[in-house]
Amino acid sequence: MTVNTATTPLHRITTSGKWLRAGAEKWLLRGISYGPFKRNSRGEPFPDDARLAADLDHIRQLGFNTLRLYELPTAALLRATTERGLRLLCGIPWTDHVDFMRSQPLQKEIRQRVAEAVTRLKEHPCVLGFLVGNEIEKTLVRWMGPHRVQRFLEGLIAAGREIAAEKLFSYATYPSTEYLIPRNADFLAVNVYLEQQKAFAAYLQRLQNLAGSKPLIITEFGLDVAKHGEAQQAEVARWFWGECDRAAVGGTVWFSYTDEWFRGGEEVTQWCFGIVDAERLARHASSGWREPSAVPTPDTPKVTIIVCTYNGTATLRPCLDSLQRMHYPDFEVLIIDDGSTQDIADIAKDFAQMRYVRQEHAGLSVARNLGASLATGEILAYTDDDCIADEDWLHHLAPAFDDPQWVAAGGPNIPPSPRNRTEAIVAAAPGAPAHVLLSDIEAEHLPGCNLAIRKSALEAIGGFRAHYRVAGDDVDICWRLRAAGGRLRFIPGAMVWHHRRYTVAAYLRQQRGYGHAEALLMADHPQHFGPLGGARWRGGIYGDHAATLALEEGGIFHGPFGNGLFQGIYQQGQRCLLHWMSGVLWIAFAIVALLCHRPAAAAAFVALSLVIALCRLRHLPLPPFALQWPERLLLLSLCWLQPIVREWERLRGMVRLRARPSWKPTLGEVFEPDRPRKAHWQVGLATFWNEQNRGREDWLRELCRILEEQGIEHRVDDGWRWFDVELHPRRWVSLGLSAVTEHHGQGRCLTRVRLTQRVSKRLLAAAALMMAVVICFGSLDDQVPTWGYFALLLSQVFLLSLSVYLFVSARFLGRRQVELAAERCGLESIPYETPGG
Predict the structure, then answer these.
(1) Is residue 371 part of a domain?
(2) pLDDT score of 423
(3) In what order do the strands lie in the sheet with 331-338?
(4) DSSP three-state, residue 654
(5) Which of 727, 722, 733 minimizes the C-alpha distance to 766?
(6) Crossing angle for the helix pair 504-524 and 473-483, to the nearest 10 degrees
(7) What values do phi and psi take at 189, rounded to 5?
(8) Cα distance between residue 19 and residue 25, in whole Å
(9) Bond prior to 296 in cis (omega within 30° of 0)
(10) Suppose 397 and one of 276, 494, 658, 707 were both cysteines; which one would form an S-S bond, judging by CB atoms 3.0 to 4.6 Å apart?
(11) Residue 630 burial (CB count, 10 A)
(12) Which of 209, 183, 226, 378 is nearest to 299 (CA)?
């Protein structure tokens, strides 16, 4: 892979799929952290000018091109970095160690601080971008709610981008909150420290999947010399670059340049992460840095790229142009014209080194089989005529076949920058081609626009099936390859640009085509479809903008009491509730209600389907611009129409083909965590203060002891819950207790304890049903007998009594244990507001 690491000139840095670019060239961020330092003679958190100049000269000499800062740069630092052609990734510090979601004034202050920082630095070309936050503590995120924190960070990014649209923005997360990813960030920024090479390589693959269609930047990585020694630090530095290059990482920041490090106004001496010490004496690791280069491949198999086209003149030329620029030593390109009525041959003649073959119009699968029969390469790389391949596509794709167990491989397909606002909205709509992953590396399905297959494996299963003329061929071939014992590998760096449909009409036609393909697949693979007709996957769906509630309770494994070091998202894929609660079903209900002369019920069903569409809209990735109301309504209508159009076409195909889904899909073992069966809401809050560094952990230990002593039934968090301890968990109504501690320096701790009402969803469903009966009886007026009115009165009394009981039981019954546990561990009860200082 060829990348530019030059420090001059200072072109604007942009994102391009999984990569950064400086102008038209790929640009690899090679960064090192700098600071924070003790304040200099001018009161600035950086060294004096002479030391600063010497540091930057040395950093540039070592081959770094970027400094990551934790304090905003001074005028002297901006001038010095610009003179040396270095760039700055600026962290914007703010009060992120407290519950900032509790206070509107505090949120306003944070937004103002971000706006002021961006405004001051936006005109400096050396500033490539901003990090609007850094490692919000994991238990604090769990306490505030991951969704709320994510939305707040997205608001900070949006505010900064309004001021400086040409700069890059992100938030630096870490493994303990790897799920905390702002949807509008320009790249995924992660601080990660792993000392073992294999563990680091495996985690990079996971991070790439979380990054999706954006660059992955490792914003902190290093090794403590005080603990591991200089030799080990140098060894880690040696393999670090190679693993990042293999994983297609867009940039890295080594932590840190020097041991000189001040945090919270105090010098940190117990850790030594620098490649030079505090006196700037070089360590072994400083001599190990080198220019990144392509990872040598011991065997480069010949690859045949096959492009099948049918009337694709609008996009074919850019596709073939991109294939000419491949950085790979041994490949050929076949253009298979599936009987187009347009002059494909006229375009193909401008690419003399590519072989053009025309067949009578027979469909996509027949064209792909023809390409396979003519190929001389042992690897067949399929892409579509509306795709643009990255120049390093084959560089990353070919090494995926280093083991015979891998019979197919592919990477992400990413929509290019939209040319207009309508195209951007269509690209954001649900239903795009997606890859389905069983693990961070193994796939269950790879889209056909970015799919490489061993020629021998394809021949062994008889090639593509001819009746898949437009779509569905890739799903069928992946299922058949896996059924034959092969494995599919996902390679994040092997990316192609894939144009989505340009108009709403074209988008809906595409969804109809997908629906028909699902009917064909159901006929061939009924065991992969559930009773409602939707495909069922063992793995999680990535890249399709699916509306999944991954940040809800039960969606994140955060470890017992929220203390897990690596807290992962559980991918629900299409088993998400929103997928089967939308589509034709609710329209059918509405029609039945109208036929039964129940217009109110019909309106209710349509309204429910619109609410579900609104939920899908809320969880889509954010478009690259703020939507106006007409555009919001358009995107909402696509969220509503897409499942209807797709399901209707699938149902029509099922009737024509007599295809039937399985009542029990054959998925094998699918991990399903114990989903929460209770709804919850806050009913109480207590706050405690301590100046001897005692907080949440001490309080939880005492609380569990008290509950054991008093014989109160309880359970502790199993790693999937948003409570720490639940009292009376087997009851329909229980009490959840959760705590968080804010550290205010010098051993001062503020601990908050939340009391949450937890009510069985079955009980709530019964109450809702009872309310529906009440409304139904009320609408019948004089047709209701006397006993009906009496039942109606009893129902209302029951609902009122239940509401009062639920509140009182949660509000008061658990507070005594909360305060007793605090008293035993020396926590002083105070009002909710933070004490002075």
Answers:
(1) no
(2) 81
(3) 355-359, 331-338, 303-309, 379-384, 450-454, 406-410, 487-490, 442-445, 435-437, 540-542
(4) helix
(5) 733
(6) 30
(7) -105, 125
(8) 10
(9) no
(10) 494
(11) 9
(12) 378
* Burial (CB count within 10 angstroms: exposed 0-12, middle 13-18, buried 19+), residue 23: exposed
> Does 767 lie in the same domain as 745?
yes
> Phi-psi region for residue 268, left (φ > 0), alpha (ψ -120 to 50) or beta?
beta
- Identify the domain boundary among 222, 257, 287: 287
- Number of domains present in the structure of the chain: 3
> What's the token pair of residue 283?
């360590």
CA–CA separation, 357 and 633 (whole Å): 45
Query: Token pair for residue 72?
Result: 């905003």
Phi (first) and psi of residue 49, to 5 degrees = -60, -40
Residue 90: is it exposed, middle or buried by C-beta count within 10 angstroms (0-12/13-18/19+)? buried
Residue 1, pLDDT above cutoff 60 = no
Q: Both 521 and 612 in a single domain?
A: yes
736 and 588 within one domain: no
Which amino acid, one-letter code, is at 489?
Answer: R
Measured in Å, how far apart are the chain's first and last C-alpha atoms? 53
What proportion of the chain, given as a percentage, has pLDDT over 90?
48
| 330 lies in some domain | no
What is the per-residue pLDDT across 351-399, written as a single tens digit (0 to 9) for each?
A: 999 999 999 999 999 999 999 999 999 999 999 999 999 999 999 999 9
Please return the burial class of 156, using the count of CB atoms within 10 Å of its CB with bins 0-12, 13-18 and 19+.
buried
Residue 103 within any structural domain of the chain: yes
In the block, tokens 């085509």 appear at: 513
**Cα 478 → chain centroid:** 24
C-alpha to C-alpha distances, 818 to 532, 739, 827, nearest whole angstrom = 47, 10, 11
Q: Give yes or no for a contact between 577 and 605, defined as CB atoms under 8 angstroms apart.
A: no
pLDDT band for position 830 (cuts 50, 70, 90)? confident
Domain end position, chosen among 252, 287, 322: 287
Coil/strand/helix, residue 121? helix
Write a three-state SS string for 429-451: CCCCCCEEECCCCEEEECCCCEE
Question: Are both 698 and 566 inside the same structural domain?
Answer: no
In this structure, the answer to whether residues 430 and 513 fall within a common structural domain is yes
Residue 466 lies in a domain: no
Tokens of 672: 């399903």
pLDDT digit string (tens) for 732-757?
A: 778 889 999 998 888 899 999 998 88
Shared domain for 659 and 697, answered yes or no, is no
Q: How far apart are CA 97 and CA 742, in angstroms?
A: 6
What is the residue range of 721's domain?
678-830
Query: Is residue 24 domain-shared with residue 62, that is, in the same domain?
Result: yes
* Burial grade of 526 (CB within 10 A; 0-12, 13-18, 19 or more): middle
d(CA 558, CA 335): 49
| Residue 697 shares a structural domain with residue 609 | no
SS (H, E, C) 316-331: HHHHHHHHHCCCCCCE
State the CATH number of the domain containing residue 261: 3.20.20.80
